[in-house]
Write a structure and sequence with these properties.
The complex is a heterodimer of chains A (546) and B (451). Chain A is of the alpha+beta class. Chain A is 27% helix and 38% strand. Chain A is built from 13 helices and 26 strands. Classes of the chains: A alpha+beta (546), B mainly beta (451).
């Protein structure tokens, strides 16, 4: 289903603050999405089942009013079914997902205590629970009727808020199957029987499992709302690539780190206000807003600053994080829900052309300007053209009208650097004498990869695809270069840059929404498809042991 | 092979002349100085170059003149592919039509044993104009080397059987040239490792040696032995000669260096790189031998052989004296190697009826340019020449000769040409490898007047 969504003016009415915020950010705002597929349940079951040790759980219950609050202190062991037929989810019209699985080899041994003030039950010196006769009122054990049986259990999961709620029907059904052995309910036997206790325990287990699922998911999505400094990413990438300079004969390309050191660029990702969630048999689709903001953008947003009024970038970023967590965050961007291709991965992340190009724009426009090329004419021509060594260099500086632009082709990307102005001049000691200006257009095919070192989505250039077109800008001046001369310069430039990209083929873009530094989620595939960058992830085998 | 479109447009261009007998900047000597019928045994001022003793048997005062029109063509198909297009090179072609005059006087001044003569002629050399953008442009685009000889001859005939002759030759040489130098090597050094295209128009330095003149001096000696009416034997030797042209070589800055112009100017390099150099052209020893046999009154057979000792005389060396480029300072380009060459020929004359003579001319000349030295600027062929002539004697004073010859030039396929530029690091020059084809025709008229 495709639809267009126009943002609601109502949001701006609610908070005047958002007006200025939205206007500042509107042009920098894009959409990206993630998909969670059903295979996740099976992988999670594997994670749970790989836990050999029983889980010790404690929970405060108050489901029986006559008992007030009471504590269940239990040791849980069991297996979740990891077959596709037994682990399933069903999306519903009310925006919730019914997660279904089956418990096998279930064993819950526990003790019930009065009250939930756990600290008063604990020995101050050892930390162990002190079971006093006054607090302990009974022990219990829940298990399956036989080893071959399984207990179906399901939970309602609200993906919008990552909250879980027990499915009462499922709980009752599970309770009817499980067997319980209770020591002695004593005086409470009139208020609590074995069936009630089973229902309470399964309700608790259901909600506990659903909530753990939600928390786990949220962790994998970096909290669903985050801000990171792309400047840090670029600096880390450059440090790893040890890019200082590239030399070929008398030609030297140096990259001034000055601009890079000062580059502060925030990428803020947070869920859309509306149309952020779609449920379908294919999976759960989340859609996010992505904002790319520099210091100036952040200043214009009138973010509520904390007590620390210092006007530095980190302060603004912190304020932005708080602001994203509030209800005041900016309006949603217009977007079209994409037609997602069939996929068997656990998760997918996809982003569209405008977002990628905007990141390229903000990240590399100024960075490209910091490239400087010099040709040491004096040294290289000594003995050939001149007799004595002279300090004369040819200098080429880049000026830009626009940033590098990625064109999405059918199955790969094409990097276009167009309308760049190459200023040629002669550097004599401390003076630069301009010679001419040349407009450059470059095309370069690129593939996407996930760079595990920087954990970032990275463009990898294909040096052999490099092509360049030059045109002299002469204005009212006499044109200096003939067509053949430009062709010669194009050939030389191609030769240089092919070698450069053979040495430094990577351009870092950004880190994915998924948390990739915990080895829980592993990148599976990264490709360009249907005008989108589509990145697939899987839950790593053995992640449970982490 | 593909033909240059420029040539097709230009068609036959007469303004550019071609070789006179041996091609451009070659070391050989025309086999027909003075006309088709001149030999070391022929009597008269038209043969003084081949044998100064030929004046010995003359009487009174004689004027001999000859004007020939030489037409020729040469096609050079360079080996390999054009680095700019990755296709075969276009053919470089020259088509020319040029005059070759000869004029001489002789007189005994009333003396019985002494004869004196003056001759002016062009013994060798040539000039050519190749396509400006042709594949041969790094060797030659336009060029001219012409020695103009003025010869004073004295012959002594102590006996009717013997004549001895000597000639003093002053030669005024003319030289100019235009060619391209590929500066890719300079750019390669600046951008070490970069793929600098070879023979790019942007890296062409159009180089020019303006017209200059030089003086050359030499001499020749000869003996003519005529024991009877039937037999004559002629023997002569021409001494070596050289022209040393002192001229500047002007190299235009390649258009691709325009972006460097401020930098180059800062390095003290002007828009034009100027070099002062001497260009030395040497002519070898030349030996001539001829036999004349007249068994019958109506038939005369003349046979001659010529040998040029070219292997001992390097040709066309260049020495740079002062240069605005460091790499050419005091640089020397040694002369390309040559090898000895020879000619064998005959002139068969028939007296058909009293005022008319007719005859056949045939000859073979070997190339004096070894394979390693061949280039579009210096090519020698093995030449077979066949010609006819007819002479009409108006009276006892005046003779008129008409002549025509066609020369078959043996095609040369060069595989191992070597650039003799020595250790000069400024540029690389393509070799002269390729196929050379040529043909030549000559039509002339001679006039002899005896006072």
């Amino acid at each position: 289903m495709n639809f267009n969504y126009r943002n609601s003016i109502g949001i701006a009415v609610v908070c005047m603050l958002c007006i200025s915020s939205a206007s500042a950010a509107a042009t920098n705002q894009f959409s990206l999405g993630i998909v969670i597929r059903q295979g996740v349940l099976k992988k999670l079951a594997q994670i749970v089942n790989s836990t050999a040790e029983p889980l010790n759980l404690r929970y405060c219950m108050s489901s029986v009013p006559q008992l007030g609050k009471w504590t269940v202190d239990a040791e849980f062991s069991g297996q979740l079914s990891n077959s596709d037929s037994n682990s399933n989810w069903t999306s519903t019209n009310n925006g919730a997902v019914l997660l279904e699985t089956q418990l096998q080899n279930l064993s819950i041994k526990g003790t019930l205590y009065r009250g939930c003030d756990y600290e008063t039950l604990r020995d101050g010196s050892t930390g162990d629970l002190v079971i006093s006769p006054e607090r302990r009122f009974t022990g219990f054990e829940v298990k399956q009727p036989d080893d071959n049986s399984s207990i179906p259990i399901s939970v309602w999961f609200d993906p919008a808020n990552f909250l879980a709620k027990a499915n009462y029907i499922s709980v009752v059904a599970a309770a009817s199957i499980a067997q319980i052995k209770v020591e002695d309910l004593g005086v409470f036997s009139s208020a609590l029987n074995g069936e009630d206790l089973k229902i309470s325990i399964f309700t608790w287990l259901s909600e506990l499992g659903g909530r753990a699922f939600g928390i786990w998911l949220k962790e994998q999505f970096r909290g669903m709302s985050y801000v990171e400094n792309l400047g840090d990413l670029l600096r880390e990438h450059r440090n790893r690539s040890e890019l200082v300079q590239f030399e070929q004969g008398a030609l030297k390309i140096t990259h001034s780190k000055g601009i890079l050191d000062q580059l502060e660029l925030a990428l803020a990702v947070y869920p859309r206000r509306l149309n952020s969630l779609f449920l379908s048999p294919k999976g759960i689709e989340f859609y996010f807003n992505a904002l790319i903001l520099n210091h100036e953008d952040l200043n214009q947003m009138n973010l509520p600053l904390s007590n620390d009024r210092s006007d530095n970038f980190q302060t603004r970023v912190s304020a932005l994080k708080q602001w994203l967590g509030s209800d005041l965050a900016t309006e949603d961007t217009t977007f079209t829900r994409p037609q997602l291709p069939e996929n068997q991965s656990d998760f997918s992340m996809f982003m569209t052309e405008p977002l990628v190009n905007h990141i390229m724009d903000r990240l590399y426009r100024e960075d490209l300007l910091s490239f400087r090329t010099t040709v040491d004419l004096g040294e290289s021509t000594q003995g050939l053209l001149i007799k004595e060594l002279a300090d004369v260099k040819m200098r080429l500086d880049l000026g830009s009208r626009r940033a590098p632009h990625l064109k999405f082709q059918a199955d790969r990307l094409n990097l276009q650097v167009s309308d760049y102005i190459l200023s040629l001049g002669t550097e004599i000691e401390d003076r630069i004498i301009p010679a001419t200006h040349i407009q450059c257009s470059v095309n370069l095919a690129a593939d996407l990869t996930f760079d595990s070192a920087t954990r970032s989505i990275t463009l990898v250039m294909d040096p052999n695809s490099f092509s360049i077109n030059l045109q002299e800008l002469h204005g009212n001046r006499k044109q200096k270069l003939e067509k053949e001369d430009l062709k010669l310069l194009e050939g030389l430039a191609k030769s240089f840059w092919e070698k450069y990209f053979q040495s430094y083929p990577k351009l870092a873009l950004f880190r994915p929404v998924f948390q990739t530094d915990r080895a829980t989620i592993r990148p599976l595939d990264l490709k360009v498809q249907d005008g989108m960058i589509l990145m697939d992830f899987e839950i790593a085998a053995g992640a449970a042991s982490k | 092979m593909r033909w240059s479109s420029e040539l097709l447009k230009a068609g036959w261009w007469l303004g550019a002349a071609f070789f006179i007998y041996h091609p451009i900047f070659s070391q050989g000597v025309s086999t027909t100085v003075g006309g088709l019928t001149t030999t070391p045994t022929r009597v008269g001022p038209s043969s003084v170059f081949w044998n100064p003793a030929s004046l010995g048997p003359t009487f009174g005062t004689i004027i001999d003149t000859n004007i020939s029109l030489v037409g020729g063509w040469l096609i050079y198909d360079r080996e390999g592919t054009n680095p700019q297009t990755n296709q075969e090179f276009d053919s470089s072609q020259i088509r020319v039509l040029a005059p070759n005059p000869y004029l001489s006087f002789s007189s005994d001044f009333g003396l019985s044993q002494w004869r004196f003569g003056y001759s002016t002629y062009f013994p060798t050399g040539g000039f050519a104009s190749y396509p400006t953008k042709g594949s041969q442009r790094y060797e030659l685009i336009r060029g001219l080397y012409i020695p103009w000889n003025q010869q004073l001859t004295v012959a002594y005939s102590p006996h009717s059987d013997w004549s001895f002759g000597a000639g003093f030759i002053y030669s005024l040489g003319f030289f100019k040239a235009e060619f391209d130098i590929d500066m890719a090597k300079v750019l390669s050094k600046i951008t070490e490792g970069a793929q600098v295209p070879k023979e790019s128009a942007s890296l062409n330095s159009r180089s020019r040696i303006p017209l200059s003149t030089a003086h050359g001096f030499t001499g020749n000696f000869g003996i003519l032995y005529r024991p009877n009416v039937q037999w004559s034997l002629g023997l002569s030797m021409v001494l070596p000669m050289q022209h040393v042209f002192s001229q500047r070589l002007e190299m235009q800055r390649p258009s691709g260096f325009k972006t460097l112009e401020t930098g180059l100017a800062s390095l003290g390099l002007e828009e034009q790189f100027n070099h002062q150099a001497t260009f030395k052209f040497k002519m070898p020893f030349l030996f001539n031998l001829g036999i004349r046999f007249q068994p019958y009154g109506y038939y005369t057979g003349e046979y001659y052989g010529r040998y040029a000792l070219s292997s001992q005389t390097p040709f066309a060396s260049v020495k740079f004296k002062g240069s605005s480029l460091a790499a050419l300072e005091d640089a020397l380009i040694p002369g390309a190697k040559a090898e000895d060459s020879y000619s064998l020929g005959t002139v068969q004359t028939f007296d058909l009826w009293r005022p008319v003579q007719a005859g056949l001319v045939g000859g073979y000349s070997s190339s004096g340019v070894p394979e390693q030295s061949v280039s579009p600027a210096r090519i020698g062929f093995n030449i077979f020449t066949l010609g006819v002539f007819a002479r009409y004697k108006f009276n006892s004073h005046l003779k008129l000769t008409g002549e025509y010859a066609h020369s078959f030039l043996q095609t040369r396929v060069i595989k191992n040409a070597v650039d003799p530029k020595s250790s000069i690091s400024l540029y690389d020059k393509p070799s002269g490898n390729g196929e050379y084809r040529a043909g030549m025709d000559r039509a002339g008229i001679s006039l002899s007047y005896e006072f």
